[in-house]
Amino acid sequence: MSTPRVRVFLVDDHHLFLSGVRAELGESVEVVGDADEVAAAVELIGERHPDVVLVDVHMPDGGGRAVIESVLARHPDVRFLALSVSDAAEDVIGVIRAGARGYVTKTISGPELTDAITRVAEGDAVFSPRLAGFVLDAFAADPGVTGGSAPTFDPELDQLTPREREVLRLIARGYAYKEVARELSISVKTVESHVSAVLRKLQLSSRHQLTRWATERRLL
Amino acid sequence: MVGGVASGLAQRFGVEANLIRLGFALVSLGGGTGLALYVAAWLIIPRQGSDESVLRRAVARPGTVRLLAGLVTAVLAVLLLLAAVRLGFAAPFAWPLSVAAAALVLVWRGADDEERTFLRELLDQAPVVGRTPVRRARWTTAARILAGVVLLVIGLGVLSAFPHPTVSVLRLAVAVNVVIVGILMIFGPWWLRLARDLADERRERVRTEERANVAAAVHDSVLQTLALIQRSAADPREVTRLARAQERELRAWLFEGRPPGSFDAARVSSVAEAVAVIEADVEADHGVAVDTVVVGDCPLTDDLRALLAAGREAVVNAAKWSGAPSASLFVEVESEQVSVFVRDRGAGFDPEAVNGDRRGIAESIRGRMARHGGTAAVRSVRGQGTEVELVMPRAGNRS
Q: CATH topology for B265-393?
């Protein structure tokens, strides 16, 4: 092992899942610890200082969002990858806005999960098809249409570019970054930068819909 | 009274129907021209409430032209025979006669079921050519043919004496009609049987088509479920679940007329709900994970139901054939159109070289989309997987 392995911390309230993920990740990363509740997770992450924290969206006492917010307040360099079986869009958007660098569903395969962890460790964003769909949905309607007046509307942050939209569509269709790059005749690096830009917009946009849109999913 | 032509014309021109019938009868005395006219009108004028004339229906059916050719040659043969016994003068009557005969065949071939039933009843009532009880059959046949031959001989006798001054034109016309009746008595039943055979043949063809439809539906539901049951024979709970689900589906089909694979209108009213049903059904039936992403939503229309039915077929195909453990289903609702993408990373195939018995893509997907104004594209590479792209415009729903 010439290159240092990524140090990973697991947070999930399902023990079966914790051991399952450990087994799947195997030797590809170094699992430095795990926790099954919010308070313990915050404390242990502070102690062991992992590169990446895999965090379940749904947990008692505030869920993954609470973990991310408390840890980032003191250790802004720790990176988070959200993991869930949940379909609730507002929860997923919630953890992303709290600071997670990506979201994958628990059906993801071992190698794909390793790949996602590596990506997050390098500072890139990881979009699963489902997250891409949520984002397309959240940014779809014309601003001001669903949310009434939008006085703080900022086109830089509150709108996706056509290219970003294309990239998200392909991801939603199940394309890997490499395949997206080939399809659009651009480099993988460019795909990554588009996705990171989308992540930034998702986290910083003050769009009314992003916090409220799940309750008013538009019926065209 | 036979084809409803007289009453139809009467209604059209506001004249008494019997007056028109009388007119036809009078012209008929002149050697069958009226008969030919009557039948021609029957052929060309569409029936009230129907937009297709009898003629068009007849020509559209296979075999009609061949049958006509046969008839025309038969008539020509009779004419030759007449000419041989120096009865060539019959030629002027031959044309109206043969046209009328050919046209009657067209009428029969093009008649819809209702008309046909009526015609058959009419013929069955006729004393000479109609169906008779079996024990009287031989006697009536003999009597009929005898009567026919007598009529023929008398008629031809009068006709052969035509150049003779004692034969008036009126008598000549009567003689011609006598000949016609004679021929009808001899050959009528045979022609009727021919017509019946043709009707039977058509019924058989309809039955075959219906059987093909049922076979397709049974393949899509029952046979697939049976295959799944065999595969999960070791798991009694799964077998029970599959059997129960299949039973529900069959009941819905047989008693509520809802074909397998369609969406229950009471349960599913929007695109997103229908997609959730597809995801759950395929995951349950095929054990393949379906990664579903839906962007936007809208109420289901007939076109969108067809789109989703085609999409479902694509997902089922991916689950059955690709060998991949999962498939992606992406549905996006936009104001102008709804798109469905189904992708797998499985075996892939050569779309050009698809087997004829794999009807799924051609009929369930492409055909269904085309019928509703949508498009379907299939991209597949051996060893890299398949992607099906379906797009349905949202007609009249621009927002």
A: Heat Shock Protein 90 (3.30.565)
